[in-house]
Amino acid sequence: MSAIPLVSNFQGDFVLQLIVVEPGFTMDQVAEAAAYHSVGRRVASRPGNAMRVRRQGSETFFPRNMTVAESHLQPMQCVEVMWEPEKN
Amino acid sequence: MAKLNRMDWYDLARTTNWTPKYVKESELFPPELSGDMGIPMSVWETYDEPYKQTYPEYVKIQREKDSAAYSVKAALQRSKMLENADPGWISVLKEHYGAIARAEYAAASAEARMARFAKAPGQRNMATLGMLDEIRHGQIQLYFPHEYVAKDRQFDWAFKAYDTNEWAAIAARHMFDNMMNARDAVGIGLMLTFAFETGFTNMQFLGLAADAAEAGDWTFSSLISSVQTDESRHAQIGGPLVPILISQGKKEAAQRMIDISFWRSWKLFSVLTGPIMDYYTPLAHRKQSFKEFMQEWIVGQFERAILDLGLDRPWYWDKFLEELDYQHHGMHLGVWFWRPTVWWNPAAGVSPQEREWLEEKYPGWNDTWGKCWDVIIDNLLAGKRELTLPETLPIVCNTCQLPINATPGDVWKVRDFQLEHKGRLYHFCSEGCKWCFEQEADRYGRHLSVVDRFLAGMIQPMSLEGALKYMNLAPGEMGDDAHGYAWLEAYRKKLVEKSAA
């Protein structure tokens, strides 16, 4: 199965960006792919925080270990990547 | 023999219709070119332009204007303007010429369409002069930057921009093709002359001429003032169409065309004029913020004009006013961050002093935009310039072709306005752009934004290198920070003072 392009909307950034993910990526890996283009470039990192992914318009995050394939995210849908304090 | 006064014969001279006997009226004036909406010829003949000029007057006055503008240029040939002016100002020139020169020439074709196919004789008359104006504007705005081409390759883009796939050139062509090159005579009158010219550019050129004078660039100042005097005449072609359309039950059609054009014009302004006024123009020379300029010269004026003509405020007016607070800040940050993809050198405009000014004019700037710039500044101070350069594409709007962006930080207002149409997913920056698309979806439907093209494999290799090649940007043309990052010194000093304390 081929790579899937998504629209990344990273919390605190100013612009939507193109990211490309694999169907087998977990949501943590999707968040990393999004963070690469925002965190440390225009968004300050937040130690002690995880990055969660949700479809734009949804109020719930995808489980962190859910894969892109399992999420049924379609090409060029918009994902919001947001900080969530790590539970200790 | 005593000569008649011009106003005694003007109306007669421009009453140039006759009743065709050998062809049908619809063959002389195909509806798809005239845009007549079935309105009778006798009604079109009531069109009365407010600003009248005869051909002998035109020739005399235009000759004087050209003499003046070209004389100033010749007199200042030896001035070292290019070497002495602030680099931010030089970038204003490059951006302006590249975005505008060929569009002016294209407008000559649009005026020519009105000159031939408008059913109103007055409109044909004024558009003939308008066509000559735009030929002048195309030529003069190619001739003037030409003297700099040997010194700086980016000035070559005064001509080259519109032949490239550079993203801002695509955005400009998309807008102008929609608004004037692919419209009928009535559409051109409303969308080019009324919405775009009286709405925006007439005022913008005045502001630009004043900024040029402040920057000591008298050649450009006299050029732009001169161009603007033509504009203030031919910009008035569209207005008199509105009462005619309203009286014939076509108010909705007129409103829609003007609303589309105003919104599209606003978006282009936010990326071209906004950064110029609030970031590239040296701080000491800024007379007004972009928002102040828009409110004083454009918002109030345009609102009055449309209401006076019997139209309504566009449905998106409140959203437009909201966007005055933030849209151009995002366009500026985007253009600076993606600076290798433009043909001018963006000035960052975020020295500590400039940030104070930005905070004063836009309260909350430092808590929002400033937060993004803080990360960029930290990276530059740490010698990590590569983190201030892009490694992916921004998503661009399928209408305005500009990066989809909004206020960052805690506010974080960024949103993808989506539409699925005939099985294809489209992305928009705003309700306004989405609405423009929906009004004429078939017209826009097949166009591919640069992102669509990238995903379709049209940009190879699929990297920044491939994108720059696709955009026809060669080394020596790609943008970089206008001041060579010299503005960082103030921050470096602050760091030193902090660690010394």
Oligomer: heterodimer
Strand order within the widest sheet of chain A? 2-1-4-3
Number of domains of chain A: 1
Instruction: Write down the secondary-structure element order of chain B.
Output: HHHHHHHHHHHHHHHHHHHEEHHHHH
Summed up, the helix count of chain B is 24
Main sheet overview of chain A: 4 strands, mixed
Outline the low-pLDDT stretches of chain B: none
Return the CATH class of chain B: Mainly Alpha
Question: CATH superfamily name of chain B?
Answer: Ribonucleotide Reductase, subunit A
Side-by-side strand order of the widest sheet of chain B: 1-2
Alpha-beta content class of chain B: mainly alpha
- Terminal Cα separation of chain A, in Å? 37 Å
In CATH's first tier, which class of chain A applies? Alpha Beta
Q: Approximately how much helix is present in the residues of chain A?
A: 10-25%
What portion of the residues of chain A fall into strands of 2 or more residues?
A: 25-35%
Report on the architecture of this protein:
The complex is a heterodimer of chains A (88) and B (501). Chain A has 88 residues and is α+β, with helices and mostly antiparallel strands. Chain A has a single domain, classed as Ubiquitin-like (UB roll). Helix content of chain A is 15%, strand content 31%. A 4-stranded mixed sheet of chain A has the order 2-1-4-3, covered by helices on one side. The radius of gyration of chain A is 12 Å and the shape is globular. Chain A starts with a strand and ends with a strand. Chain B has 501 residues and is mainly alpha-helical. Chain B has one domain: Ribonucleotide Reductase, subunit A, CATH 1.10.620.20. Helices cover 61% and strands 2% of the residues of chain B. Chain B has a two-stranded antiparallel sheet. In chain B, a hairpin with a 2-residue loop joins strand 1 (417-421) and strand 2 (424-428). In chain B, helix 14 (251-280) packs antiparallel against helix 20 (431-439). The longest helix of chain B has 31 residues, at 87-117. The mean pLDDT of chain B is 95. At the A-B interface, strand 1 and strand 2 of A face helix 17, helix 19 and helix 22 of B.
